[in-house]
Amino acid sequence: MSKSSDLHQVPFFQLVNFLWKSCLYTKGCSLFLVLCPMLWAAELSLMPYAIGKFLDCLHPEVTYKEVLSPLFLFFSALLMVLISYRLFNYMIGICMVPKLRSRLARIGLSQVFNMSYEALKEELPGKISGKISDLPKVVPELLEMFCWKVLAPLIALALSLILLNQKDKIFALITFIWAIFFITANLAMVPYLIERSAQFAQCGNQILGVISDSILNAFTVKIYSQEEKEDSYLKKNCKKGEITEKNLQWAYFFLHLCLSLCYVAMLGLTLYVAFHQFKKGKISVGDLAVIMNLNLGIAHVLWESSFEFSRIAQHLGRMKQVLEMFSSSALFVQEPKKPQHNVKAAIFRSPPSIRFDHVTFSYSPEVSLFRDLCLTICSGEKIGLVGYSGAGKTSLVQLLLGLYSPDRGKVLVNDLPVSTMNLQFLYKNVTFISQNPQFFRRTILENLTYGCEDITLEQVDSACSQAGILKRIQELEHGYQTVLEDQGSPLSGGEKQRLSIAKAFLRNTPVLILDEVTAQQDAITEQSIQISLGALMQGKTCIVIAHRLRVVTLMDRLFVFNHGKIEQIGPHDLLIHQNGLYKKLWDIQNSTSSLPIKNL
């Protein structure tokens, strides 16, 4: 069980702030997010006004000169809307959005790398990928919707109220009261809709994570004939998504029902008042045309915006559940941070010492794994960590790498606490090889030189030769340019391990950590890999985790762990003659007698 980490709650104003910071990325283009809606709103208001002026000019002896002014106003308004759309397409669609999507994708990935190891372990990879891909999708769409479905209608409403007030104040008052009710109702529902939309998006990404997990383990599913179980598990998650979506759609249903009744009432009242005002001679035919066109136009625009509120709330919800996964630093659109130079670089000029100073650590408050642990590894020393599974060997390494923080005490490298180090700098000086090496779906050369700077092909050849993998690579049709497929194919398990060792030769870091590197290899492959590792460990501070005790017999010292405690310390030749846990494990692994097998 891991320590639970609460999501960083993102309030509404910080979502707006994130959008604002996104706009500022391309300041010149962002101006058109305001300019284009202003031109469009002007067209929406001026065109009915021009039509009304044109109707008032009509009489049997009308001249072209009399209608020239309203016609000019009409076509000017038409030209404004054409210009606004073309400007928006160019400045936003071409100049701004592609760059913004690219930056948001990079920020999303960099924030994932800034997440704690604990938080990453708690999330399905497919779920995280879904969240990252949401960010560059929803932010540009939100900016566009804000431009055309929020800002433009508000500007159009303000201009329409000014024009209606000039014709008759009662029409401006009716429209104003209706618009206030309409906007208030939508805004009041925004927090609720955002929360429900975030839950719906969370369910969607969970489903994506479950599907990705099943696909990654497709062979296991097939070999155990568990297709129905996977379908049942997916169905269970989909059911949660169905319930969440239904709750969201019910909220929209009642909101739009109330607004539609208000919409009909406003139009009916406007028609009734307009009819009476016209009968009393207070407004002309042109005024009537202006009033009805403005009211119908504004009502239609606000009504459309109300339906778009559902999309806006959904997109804000999706953005919210992405940002909640990150720390508060993700709320500001910044360039991904470049690695900082560490002033303590001198500590890695030679193999460093490592010390665990009275370390207490637990994955849960109920049970402590380490309690007041003290351990010292000297500079250039090669030590082995052995013991039962779950005894704390891997946890010790994770504390050293800063993946977890001790509850009490310190982990020090050359007397410098790991907690005060720039972890990027620390990782540049540590090589970690696990029993299940992971590779990118890239070429062998790209995988070998990943994280290595200024590496020549001659150095790559030398490292591969030392690791005993050069001949195998040369046998491949495309050599170093062979793309590694899923699970590192076409390389075997032993060959993948040798590739990891070759990479370690290239990195040549002063600290080397080996975690069960030969656990899944046959005896011949294990012996061959051991020879390569012997050369690799020269001149380094080495930590070797092993269950196969033959792997650590030549280590300077062994630490025997049991339930988070160190029971024995010493070299193999000493521990083998002590009546302790190490001798017990050694005897079990090297017993010449086999356990009895029951008759089948």
Automatic annotation (TrEMBL):
State the annotated membrane topology for this chain: Multi-pass membrane protein
Q: Which SUPFAM superfamilies does the UniProt entry name for this protein?
A: ABC transporter transmembrane region, P-loop containing nucleoside triphosphate hydrolases
- Main localization of the protein? membrane
Q: Does the keyword Nucleotide-binding apply?
A: yes
Q: Where in the cell is it found?
A: Cell membrane
Record-level Gene Ontology MF annotations = ABC-type oligopeptide transporter activity; ATP binding; ATP hydrolysis activity
Q: Which GO terms describe its cellular component?
A: plasma membrane
The entry's keywords: ATP-binding, Cell membrane, Membrane, Nucleotide-binding, Transmembrane, Transmembrane helix, Transport
All copies of domain ABC transporter, residue ranges: 354-588
Q: Can you give the residue ranges of the ABC transmembrane type-1 domain?
A: 46-314
Q: Which domain of life is it from?
A: Bacteria
Q: Which Pfam families match?
A: ABC_membrane (PF00664), ABC_tran (PF00005)
Q: Which residues cross the membrane?
A: 31-51, 71-97, 146-164, 170-194, 250-273
Q: Name it.
A: ABC transporter ATP-binding protein
Q: Which organism is it from?
A: Holospora obtusa F1
